[in-house]
Amino acid sequence: MKRLSILFFSIFLIGFTSCGKKAATEGAKPDAAITVTVQVVQEGDPVYYDNFPGTIVALNEVTLLAQVNGYVTGIFFKEGETVKKGQKLYEIDRIRYQAAYDQALANLRITEANVEKAQRDADRYNRLLKQDAVARQIAENAETDLRNAQLQVTSAQANLTTARTNLSYSVILAPFTGTIGISQVKMGALVNQGQTLLNTISSDNPMAVDFEVDEKTMVRFYNLPKQKTTSDSTFRLILPGGIKYDTPGQLSVIDRAVNPQTGTIRIRLQFPNTEHLLKTGMSSTVQVLNKSGKRQLLVPSKSVIEQMGEYFVYVIKDNKAEQRKVSLGAVLQDQTIITTGLNAGEQIAVEGIQKLKNEAPVQTQPAKTASR
What we know:
By secondary structure, the protein is an alpha+beta fold.
C-alpha cells in the first residue's frame, strides 16, 4: 500500500507539471505594439544665444591704504555715495604733519642762510689770499665750510620733501570719480602706514562683465569684431533672479593668454550702468548671439531622454524602436540641436516614449504640429 501511494502521487505530480507548462505555453503572446507619435528629423538654421556664467567687475577699483601713521581725525564722505575725483575723503593727524613740514621748511631757510654766509666768507678769504694777506689754510677752511653748508641745504631739502609728502598723505583724496564703500576705520582709529585698509572706491559707469570660454570658442570671439552683428543684440546680460538687463553690451577685451590650468581665456564685455543696477562682484549670465549660418539638426526637446548623464532618442524603423545615443548642442526653448547621433530624414518618437525600450514594437502616428 505504501508503494502504491507513492506511485499515484508521482503520476499526479508529473501530470500537474505538464499541464502547467502547457498552459504557460499557450498563454504566451507577442508584446503589444506601443502607440507613439513620430516626427521626421529636420535641418534648420537656428539663431540662439549661448550662455556663460559671468562676474560683474568695476573697470577701475582702488583700495585706499593709510600712507602715514597716526589717528584718523576726519572722515568727509557718506558711505556708499558717489565721490568726485579729488574729493577729500580722510584726514590723518594733519596737525602733526603740518608741524613737521613747517619745521623742515624753517631748517631749509636756516641752511640757505648759512650757505650765503659761508659763500661771503669764502669769497673774502680768497681775495685776501690773492693779496697774501691771509694764510692759505684759512681760505681752504672757508671753502670747506661753504661745501658743508651747501650739503646741509641738500639734506634740508630732502627733509622738506619728506615732510611735504607726509603732509599730503595725511589727506586722502578720491583718485577718480566712483562709488566709495563702507569705511573700514572710524574716527580716532590708529592707522599704520601701508597696512591699514581705509576703504575701497570703484568706478560704476560703465561696468565690465568677465567670463571664461574654452580654446575652441575663443576663435569665435576673435572673429566677432569683423562681423556687422556686434552692435545691438550680440551680447545680453541676465541678472540674478532671471532679470534681463535692458541695455546690450560690447566686446571690450580678450585676455592676452589662455590659462594653462583650465584651458580657458577670459573675455570682458562692457555695459552702460546709468541706473547703477550693476554692482561689483554680482554673478550674472552672459548671453552671446550664435548665428553660425550652418544647417543643424533640430528635434523636439521632449523627445530627448537623459540616463545617467547621457542622452538618447528613439529612432523608429520598421515599426520598431531603436534607442540611439546622441550628443546635444544648444537648447532652444522647445527644440534641441543634435550634434551627433542622428541624420536628417530619420524618424523619431516624440510622444508616448515613456513605455518604450530598445527593439520594442510600435504603432506610429504623425505629430499634430510640425517642427519649426
